Amino acid sequence: MGDSSMEGFKYDTHIHTSESSACAFDSGADMVRAYKEAGYQGFIVTDHFFNGNTSVPLHLPWHQRVDLFCRGYDSAKAEGDKCGFQVFFGWEYGYFGTEFLTYGLDRNFLLEHPDILSWSFEEYAEQVHRHGGILVHAHPFREAFYIMKIRLYPEMVDAVEGINASHTNPSFNRKAIQYAQEHGLPMTSGSDAHSIRPLAGGGILTEHKIESIKDMICIITSGSGYRLLGK
User: What H or E segment, with its residue span, contains residue 88?
Assistant: First the structure.
């Protein structure tokens, strides 16, 4: 864990783009160029969803909101296709400050569920799993002004972000790793990058190239075939 010297394929599991996350500073295309230069093979775009720090106006019709939400991914994917960098789609779902990286679903899922913001977290988790997705609890022990309380759902998530490389307080990651181990949950690492200056260095190092988000899900849920990068 945390060993970046072994050979393999580097993927970041948690990044934001300026097109879709209000707190991000660089576009999806700029993120691709920076990550490729840093030796990564790919990343998952996980922009803040509509119940998080989104840049998408909430008064628009649902299909327009979804289209705008996907702009960061679309920008990154177009650039990735040009330069041979893999870009996968996801998002960061917020529940009163508690956040969950959602992998394995696509924009069609969002378009088909305009009532998603009315769901309880329990219903959200059920629907994600029913449609073949997974939930990774992002930075579960982070302390910040927007997090009113620490909420843990070990029975509803598929993995825990053990390392969030953007953390400056090492206790947040230590607690996350201990929590995952206590509940037998696989771990991920993510940079939580909002900018290319500098890249935080998080992610996972896999033994084999990942060809799809389904491959990523299989690797993460198995808890094997990869190592965590970062602090």
Answer: strand 86-95
SS3 201: coil
Condensed to tens digits (0 to 9), the pLDDT of residues 6-53 reads 579 999 999 999 999 999 999 999 999 999 999 999 999 999 999 999
Burial of 176 (0-12, 13-18, 19+ CB in 10 A): buried
What's the CA gap between 164 and 68, in Å, rounded?
A: 27
Instruction: For residue range 210-220, list pLDDT tens digits in order.
Output: 999 999 999 99
Q: Any idea which fold 9-229 has?
A: TIM Barrel (3.20.20)
pLDDT in tens, 84-134: 999 999 999 999 999 999 999 999 999 999 999 999 999 999 999 999 999
Please enumerate in sequence order all residues whose Cβ is within 8 A of that of 79, keeping only pairs 6 or more positions apart, or say none.
28, 29, 32, 33, 85, 87
Which whole-number Å values give the CA distances from 142 to 4, 43, 97, 156, 204, in the listed order? 24, 22, 10, 19, 20
Report pTM.
Answer: 0.95
- Give the C-alpha separation, 146 to 96, whole Å: 8
